[in-house]
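Researcher: Here's the sequence for the chain we discussed earlier.
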Amino acid sequence: MVGHDAAWQAWRSAMSGARMHHAWLLAGKKGLGKATFAQAAARELLRAAGEGEHPDILTLTYGPKNKDEAKKRDDGKPYELARGIKVDQVRDIQRRLNTRPTMGDKRVVIIDPADDMEVSASNALLKSLEEPPQGTYFLLVAHSPARLLPTIRSRCRTVRFPAIPHEEMDQLLRRLAPEADIASRDAAIAAAAGSPGAALSFLDFDLGKSAQLMRRIVEEGDRDFGLRGQLAGTIGAKQNIPRLQAVLDLARAILAERIESASGDPRKLVDTHAELVRLTGEQPTYNFDPGLLGMEIGTLLASAGAASERGNG
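Model: Thanks. This is the structure I predict for it:
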């Protein structure tokens, strides 16, 4: 995985040391491969060859939303996931930690994502981190480490996964998605903000044309609303929540580029970015009409552009 060299160096150095820390916080943006690293690092620690599930690697992640969804899972049917990791899941893992490892003297608990634990789950986990069972190691995957309890963070050794630079991202996408055109790659790279996993997801949404229109609106303005209409057209009329979230992420990324390159007072740009953040947070709840959302995004971008400001006096 791209960008994992420093993480492997830290992990392997600890493995070869006299005493390895029992809890690790793998921190970085979503889509950097932290969960993949956690699984590979756990297998290396346990000297587990091959693939497939390992009895001494316990992975804790989102479970079914409720009992009805759990029944669907047990019946092999699609089921809805809970929004967070619940205390019962943590306690179930803790009960398993009362037994000896199955195939050796070590086991690894992976929590992904740890920053989505409910408060009661975090408090329960803290007890295990304070008094870890012998031979048990914890790997906490976190996209937003600040959301974790300070007492949990203080008991972990933190390994940070860096965002991937633009050039490396472009090379990666050329290799993994050779069918994508330049505009689509550029849009995915801009929206992903250094996350390869996110960039690949954005490519699936085909936002290259939307990105071109957004940049034109910011740079040129849109006094006759023509570009906004085209932008709404590229977004489409279908209520596809993941795609609409990707469109909003892309708009924020393009505006962030503008903020970084601004030579004058950036406050208008920052205020507009805050409005886009608000829209992003409200979209899953309010299910905005896609066309109207496209027009609103375009209006915000136009109001932030220098050309638009001149046009409006």
